[in-house]
Design goal:
single chain; seven-stranded mixed sheet; 0% helix
Length: 118
């Protein structure tokens, strides 16, 4: 089992920045990917970014590429999402997630609200 706890959400004006954090516990993450999804009201949950824990390979959704940066701190078992140049359409609940390299995403945090005002 992997437990995930997010923090760092809030209210920001368009063009501003926020950094989300996700602390993981419960097992070794060396064979895992960790990522972020988001869900806006009335919409399906969508992929934002992920990172391989051991090698640091990253993948981004086209909608956030060039604005968001995912990173991890192996010593702290924490993954971050630095969000820059935020837009109102980035408003959503952001969920931290984890998966073993051979499975789909199956571990989820409780979510943190990000609101971008215009």
């Amino acid at each position: 089992q992997v437990q995930l706890v997010e923090s760092g959400g809030g209210l920001v004006q368009a063009g501003g920045s926020l950094r989300l954090s996700c602390a993981a516990s419960g097992r070794t993450l060396s064979s895992f990917y960790m990522g972020w999804f988001r869900q806006a009201p009335g919409q399906e949950r969508e992929f934002v970014a992920d990172i391989s824990w051991s090698l640091g390979w990253t993948t981004y959704a086209d909608s956030v590429k060039g604005r968001f940066i995912i990173s991890r701190d192996n010593a702290k078992n924490t993954v971050y999402l630095q969000m820059n140049s935020l837009k109102p359409e980035d408003t959503a609940v952001y969920y931290c997630t984890a998966r073993h390299a051979t499975t789909t995403y199956s571990y989820w945090g409780q979510g943190t609200q990000v609101t971008v005002s215009s």
